[in-house]
């Protein structure tokens, strides 16, 4: 049996599916408890039902991006593992980047089923899992203190001005993503720059071209949301940018 067949075996589906089912059950429990808490504070049943329906509706478009991630990773990691990672705590941009980096670290030229070994798969799974647990762990340890800093008041009862109330979290996340994008775009540029520092089309310029198309697509979605006030595109922006970038990759690949 080939490795990819083992990764798509009933046993893998049973293990990963049981975890996903448990998480789904937890979500249902919290939904019921939240519904009952809403009734307890006097909220109308009709209003609660509208909130549930609207929330469920707005999860469909973002879920398409997750589905694309599962499809993209299933060719090399099988279906159960990407399904588990992206259903529980994973993020689309994180999973694909870490899986690719781990694959290269194990000696693979790319994240592909043809080069995948049991050791490579184990390493990829370990890194995908361990590298993302710090968010929940740090939240358990520091969230209470962080919330206290946000709600600190002076003797007049006004909120204190500090680094946390100035949007430190948003700035830190923005800086982190700028760093990630710069690193990846820099590596793409490096593939098409010759030794004398000049651009050349003899290298693999496809990743850079696709990145530019994806960025342009996201810019259009942001413009529609902020300038035209088309709210629904915000949920579709990631998925839409991915689909447009994938289409660009297919169209441009024969030119490489």
Summarize the structure.
The chain has 256 residues and is mainly α.
Model description:
By secondary structure, this protein is an all-alpha fold. The chain folds into two domains: about 1-140, no CATH class; about 160-255, no CATH class. The protein is built from eleven helices and no strands. It has helices at about 5, 10-40, 45-60, 60-75, 80-90, 90-105, 120-130, 135-150, 170-190, 205-225, 235-250. α2 runs parallel beside α5, α6 crosses α7 (about 120-130) and α10 (about 205-225) packs antiparallel against α11. The radius of gyration is 22 Å and the shape is globular. The chain starts with a helix and ends with a helix. The model has no long low-confidence stretch (mean pLDDT about 85).
Percent range for helical residues? Answer: over 70%
Low-confidence stretches: none
Our count of helices gives: 11
How is the main sheet built? Answer: none
Task: Compute the number of structural domains.
Answer: 2
Task: Tell me the radius of gyration.
Answer: 22 Å
Report how far the terminal alpha carbons are from each other. 35 Å
Share of β-strand residues:
under 5%
Order of helices and strands: HHHHHHHHHHH
| Shape assignment | globular
């Amino acid at each position: 049996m080939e490795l990819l067949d083992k990764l798509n075996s009933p046993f893998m589906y049973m293990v990963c599916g049981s975890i996903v089912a448990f998480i789904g059950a937890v979500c249902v429990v919290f939904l019921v408890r939240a519904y009952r808490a809403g009734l307890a504070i006097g909220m109308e049943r009709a209003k609660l039902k509208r909130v549930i329906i609207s929330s469920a509706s707005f999860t469909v478009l973002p879920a398409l991006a997750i589905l694309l991630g599962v499809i993209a990773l299933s060719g090399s990691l099988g279906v159960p593992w990407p399904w588990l990672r992206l259903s529980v705590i994973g993020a689309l941009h994180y999973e694909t980047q870490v899986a690719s980096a781990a694959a290269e670290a194990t000696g693979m030229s790319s994240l592909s089923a043809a080069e995948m070994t049991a050791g490579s798969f184990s390493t990829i799974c370990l890194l995908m899992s361990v590298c993302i647990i710090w968010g929940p762990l740090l939240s358990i340890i520091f969230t209470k203190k962080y919330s206290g800093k946000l709600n600190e008041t002076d003797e007049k009862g006004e909120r204190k001005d500090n680094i946390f109330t100035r949007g430190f979290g948003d700035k830190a996340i923005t800086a982190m993503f700028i760093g990630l994008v710069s690193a990846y775009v820099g590596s793409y540029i490096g593939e098409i720059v010759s030794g004398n520092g000049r651009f050349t089309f003899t290298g693999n310029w496809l990743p850079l071209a696709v990145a530019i198309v994806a960025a342009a697509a996201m810019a259009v979605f942001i413009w529609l949301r902020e300038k035209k006030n088309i709210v629904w595109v915000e949920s579709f922006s990631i998925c839409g940018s991915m689909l447009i970038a994938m289409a660009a990759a297919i169209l441009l690949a024969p030119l490489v």
